[in-house]
Amino acid sequence: MMEKEDSVQKLYTRMRLWEFPDQYVIEPTDGSSGSSLSVSRVDGSMKLIDKVPECSTLRVPKIYTIFGVVGMLKLLGSYLLVITERESVGSYSGHPIFKISKLKVFPCDNSLKNTPPEKKKIEMEFSGLLNVAEKTSGLFFSYETNLTLSAQRLNDLGDESRLLPLWRQAEPRFLWNNYMLEVLIDNKLEPYLLPVVQGSFHHFQAAIGKDIIDVSLIARRCTRRNGTRMWRRGADPDGYVANFVETEQIMQFNGYTASFVQVRGSIPLLWQQIVDLTYKPKFELLKLEEAPRVLERHFLDLRKKYGAVLAVDLVNKHGGEGRLCEKFGDASQHVAGNDVRYLHFDFHHVCGHVHFDRLSILYDQISDFLERNGYLLLNEKGEKMKEQLGVVRTNCIDCLDRTNVTQSMIGRNMLEYQLRRLGVFGAEETISSHPNLDENFKILWANHGDDISIQYSGTPALKGDFVRFGHRTIQGILQDGVNALLRYYFNNFVDGTKQDAIDLLQGHYIVSVGRDTAATSQKGGLEAIASFPLALGLVLTGFLFATMSLRQVQYDFRHIFFSLMWAGISIGIAAFVRANGRVFCNRPRLHNPR
Length: 594
Known about the structure:
This protein has 19 helices and 20 strands. It has 594 residues and is α+β, with helices and mostly antiparallel strands. The strands form three sheets. Strands 6, 7, 8, 9, 10, 11, 12, 13, 16, 17, 18, 19 and 20 form a 13-stranded mixed β-sheet that branches. It has a five-stranded antiparallel β-sheet with strand order 4-3-2-1-5, with no helix packed on it. β3 and β4 form a beta hairpin. It starts with 14 loop residues before the first strand and ends in a 10-residue tail after the last helix.
């Protein structure tokens, strides 16, 4: 792959942030001779200044070391997001890759001090969501290379494109801070414009005899329909799907680079699962008449970006998932052709909960597509010897657990195929015959799956023990049970607020002075008083009194009446909460994408 041209203006890699009463000043401290950036604490306006203002002896400003400016978020006031801690996680083609360990939000809202109390209250609720945003996981960046593009797309960049700043080269759908960079772009602050990707980055080196191979796994999460597990399902009317992630497996050996891309994404229909306190809310298909058009838009977008598409659908053929499976299969017939193919594989029916080795049945059905569409291969000079002509699109319901097991199997077979092509492996040699390589590869994909799952569901991936160890374990099955319960808790009582924070950061909900922001924050009717902890407390208290009264029956038979009364009250409250489950859940309030 070609290196970035020296003529491109470099990004600042280390800065000092001065917190003055009326402004923040960001001063480059990485040896660059560039100007400092002044950000007004009144309205968030920005300008370049030649030097840091003199400090008052009465109020010494706080000073922070920062490693990048993520962007500016405009609510009723403005908020500056910066990177205060980073972690080096490896390198790609000699370019360091960093993970954001800590974000910090600096408010620029002094202008709101004289606003009416109701506006202050609304802004306080919005700014409270930024506390959630500070905890966003899986954010990566590089000062020197474009993480939003796969190796093949980077290699295909023209000479003019290579001269552009990283943010202008970036693929918008994978640029996590795309919306927040707009203010910096408008102010032409090139050295501060740092592209950030949400996803995953892991790598390892392994010896095969005397040969050393380097394997990296990169995930890029699409921002078009970004969100949490239950609050972002299916597709939007434009065909963008929830939990769409591009996964690129890169192998480097003796100057050669091989890259293989897969994608995952929710079933591309209009459907939802609204949490209602049940363990598995029912699937709701919406606007069935629009299904062919939405699916066609989705696959058209995939074909433009990746070429031929093989859609592998892993959902159950029966039950609640079966209806989605049937509709997906029927709608896919309208777009099927030489470059689009739909394949259903009932993962649970074939593999059960432990026999994941039976995925070889699936591989036999897709191996012809993989061999025909191949992978990218660059020689020592960075010249293209082979290119990837198509992509496997895998989905289950969440596109997490079954999907990750399946993608790791495909990635394993493709890596073996590449190593045979380069002469590292013999005709019958496999990754399993090299224990060190085998162990590292399993850990690589297990960590990858956990990262993607945490971002979407709040917990590590289920079935991760198979990916990590090659077989199911008692500890892994028990851990799956714990994670399943945690997902239930997050879905019902946490993710609504998290979804609002995501929608603010991605610009899916834009706050403006003229917008009716009060409506988003106010609760009315039953919702105003609905509290699950309170209801649970009343139910438990009722059963406690019922039990206590029951114990007194031997002394006074009338206590059986009180016992039944308390038990009846508890059952009544529980039934009421169950019937109105949606009202008692933590729901998003800002943005309905449909």
